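hey so u asked for the seq, here:
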Amino acid sequence: MEAKEISQAVVGRLPRYFRYLGELKDEGVERISSQELSELMKVTASQIRQDFNNFGGFGQQGYGYNVEFLYKEIGRILGLENKHNFIIIGAGNLGRALGNYMNFERRGFIFKGMFDKNPELIGSDVRGIKVMPMEEMERFVRENDIDIAILTIPKTSAVEVADRLVQNGIRAIWNFAHVDLNVPDGIQVENVHLSDSLMKLSYNINRYMKESNKD
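ran it, structure tokens below
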């Protein structure tokens, strides 16, 4: 049977459900209704039920959702039962901040290597990982079963580096460079434009101030 196509909007909400359910589980909450989860997450109960129904639904009428079961099921849907090895390309401030973020390991993402072309950064240490020269990147990807590459490099270098990664078997790219990457079908790319988020925040501040001034 052909797998059901799930919208990216639904997929985008799954990590947030996972995070809230993890917090509830840690607090000892055993079950929760869609209405209670709605109040916590500021998402309508109807939206929650629709999202979960994409995967067959997880609740029982009159009982709600078993928190631990739902947490595990969403983790499974997100593929978090698998380990994913990743490398970081770019050992500047952003790359180092991501390398030092230990919550990745809790989610099954294993930091394996970091690369940079700056001779002054090569050999420096990020949480026990030595920064390596770019010349070693391809061999390292092939020999260490690297799934994901994180790009924190200028856009002038990102396209060429992405091509090299794809040619050596990378499966996914988390792209912080300010450029869209043209990669073959089957290579997953998640673009993160930090300035876009700030501009969105600016828009919302501006809209709120205009509405406040009307009162």
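The chain has a mean pLDDT of 91. The domain at 8-77 is CATH 1.10.10.10 (Arc Repressor Mutant, subunit A).
lmk if thats what u needed
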